[in-house]
Description:
The protein is α+β, with helices and mostly antiparallel strands. It has helices at residues 2-21, 28-41, 100-115, 123-135, 212-224, 232-238, 242-251, and strands at residues 45-54, 57-59, 76-85, 88-97, 140-141, 147-151, 154-161, 177-180, 183-185, 192-203, 230-231, 255-263, 269-271, 274-277, 283-284.
Amino acid sequence: xxxxxxxxxxxxxxxxxxxxxxxxxxxxxxxxxxxxxxxxxxxxxxxxxxxxxxxxxxxxxxxxxxxxxxxxxxxxxxxxxxxxxxxxxxxxxxxxxxxxxxxxxxxxxxxxxxxxxxxxxxxxxxxxxxxxxxxxxxxxxxxxxxxxxxxxxxxxxxxxxxxxxxxxxxxxxxxxxxxxxxxxxxxxxxxxxxxxxxxxxxxxxxxxxxxxxxxxxxxxxxxxxxxxxxxxxxxxxxxxxxxxxxxxxxxxxxxxxxxxxxxxxxxxxxxxxxxxxxxxxxxxxxxx
Length: 288
Ligand code: MN
Ligand code: MN
C-alpha cells in the first residue's frame, strides 16, 4: 500500500508542478521534459510519457524529440501525468487554458463520480453521473474514452469506468484501485477518432530478434519499462538509430504503437482525472 500512496502523491505533485510552469509560450517538449524530470527527482519513474494534448486532441499526444509545438494563448491544454513506484501507479490529469466552462465540466463530473466510489456501486451509475454533470454545462461527454482499473505494472487492467450510462451492471469492490477520467467536449460527435502515431509504444510480447542492435533495445525496454507505455523520445537519447530499431520491433509484433486520439468533429476537449482507492470512504490517491 505504501508504494500506491507514494506513486499517487508524486503524480499529484508533478501534475501541480506542470500546471505551475505551463504558461503560454512554453513548448510542449520543455514542459514534458520538466515534468518527467521532476518525477525522477522525487524518486519515482514515469508510468507513461506525459500526455500534453491541445484543443481537439483528447489524449495520446506526447511531444517528439524535435517537437516545436507551443502552448499558445488561445489553446486548451490537457496535462496527464503517470507515475510508478515499483510498478504501483498514480494516474492524474487536469486541463488549463481557454474555456473555463469546458474545464469546469470535466472537473465537476470527476468530483461527482468520486462521491460514488464506494463498494457495491454499479459502473453504469458512475457513467450516468459523469454524463449528466457534463450535460449540465451544455457540453457532451466523450463516450469512447473511459476510466480503468489499475494493478501493478498494468495501467489498464480489468474494469472500464464508463463516461456515460453504458448499461454495465458490474459493481465496484472494496480495495480496487481505479482511475476515473471524464472528457467533456464542445464538439458535436462526442467520440474520439484515431489520428497519427503518437510516438508512444508499449511492449506487446517478447520473442527472439535476429538483429543484435534491435535485440539490445528490446532487452532495455523489457528491463526499464516492463509492460508500461514509453516514448520514442526517451529511447532516442540512448540509442543511435532508435526510430529504425523501433520500427523493426514494431513490424515483428513485439511493440504496440498508440495513435493520437482527437475529437472527431474537431471540438475542444477538457479532461480531469484522479486515481482512487475504493473504500467505504473513497481515498483519492493523487490528490495533494
Ligand atoms: Mn491519465
Ligand atoms: Mn488514465
